[in-house]
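Purpose: get a first structural picture of the assembly so the mutagenesis plan has something to point at.
Setup: two entries, given in the order below. No constraints added.
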Amino acid sequence: MLNRHDILQTIEMIDRQHLDIRTITLGISLLDCAHPDTATCCRRIFEKISEKAGTLVETGQAIEAEFGIPIVNKRVSVTPIALVAAACGTADYTPFALALDKAAKEVGVNFIGGFSALVHKGFTASDRALLSSIPQALAETERVCASVNVATTRAGINMDAVAQMGGLIRHAAELTASAGSMACAKLVVFANAVEDNPFMAGAFHGVGEAECVINVGVSGPGVIHSALKAVPGAPFDVVAETIKKTAFHVTRMGQLVAQEASKRLGVPFGVVDLSLAPTPAIGDSVARILEEMGLEACGTHGTTAALALLNDAVKKGGVMASSHVGGLSGAFIPVSEDEGMIAAARSGALTLDKLEAMTCVCSVGLDMIAVPGDTPAETISAIIADEAAIGVVNNKTTAVRIIPAIGKTVGDTVAFGGLLGSAPVMPVHAPESTAFIRRGGRIPAPMHSLRN
Amino acid sequence: MRAIVTVIGKDQVGIIADVCTALSNVSVNILDISQTILQEYFTMIMLADLSACPLAFSELGDQLSALGKKRGLDIRIQREDIFDAMHRI
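Result (structure tokens, whole complex):
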């Protein structure tokens, strides 16, 4: 009846290899909170979130205790606010961010995502209001996360939005310069954003989703690393198979927790996002997995191939383990949140150009990267344009979460604290991209978007 | 409801007796036990039936954990499902 090996292996994964559920995120539709009066809309937003997410944290804690698996974060994601606030006709959307922040504190979640707009094909008046409110909203709130989708494979790239985002990111950085430009750590620019991502800062509750949904993000870079250490020098077939099997175990944990949370909260189960999400803790790094495969430092030649294998093997193992896989589901490469990435960036082994190549084969984009404080807005926009092009042409999600470290330059470090970690400032190319970004307009959708 | 109780630590006289007594005091029925001693380290895994236990899961967990701390052992209780879910197709 008892399988000692399985039981001890599970306990070892939890105790020593940082196996955990990274987040359970409750997605809530706020479409029915729309109202022409701003104060009423904000009140409805606050009340609905408080009601739907009232028991989220304690349910998470109970599941943690009963199953013995840490659930690191409990979070909430909502309908993109640009949609919810559209009837209000106000130009300043900060009140909505304040309402979200208040609700997040009320229910006890550490982040709430969805101060967002989807502008891949163009802007509505509401989108414009939201975008221009982003810097102030993020500076004034603690727990609100914002995101903007500027491109899709079907629509092409909205280069007006790309141009604007460079400036908004700089502005957000300046407003929060004394806090390490923290606002930028809560802002993501997407291409091909998904509707059910449970991870912050890019989580929002898409309009195709139900009233309420539970999405779970698992994590297990440490577990995968340990599994690989047991097969040193083995050929890539064995490496891929080892990662695949380990990913199965990790994802099953997420599936179990998701189903249990869904049952207890009376909310439908959405997806398990089987992303390998690192933390700054030792033994919880994606970069170290790549190095374990035989690279002296993450960022050297071979890194892209290693990451491609890892990303694919994780998906294959995870897909069998869960009834619904979604979100971003792959390997994350956030520089500040990965002890191995931080070391590689600091030593110069890992550069922005290599990270860009890596985003072609993994599930996020340029994430938690600090650049010099004097980086021009157009350069930031051009970095976003490059990532958007990768996402659009390859039919995948890419994103940019970049932090201009005001007052700092290459060689300095920005510290955000907690799970957001700390990042060495990385160099950007000096030649300007100003005239390129100033053109504006739309880059048309690529040929292969015509799939019908 | 079935749960797995795991006891890990340095071997001492009376561990099995203490844990079994603690469980039987709260009407927890032990369905299966597996135990080994490797060098000086003791690992015991028990499959327990909690259906007659009047305590809430977390209370039982706290009691066992406290017993463990007194004896310098790690004692935890987890619902059985987690192990089934992770290791069975």
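The helical segments of chain B are 15-25, 57-71, 81-87.
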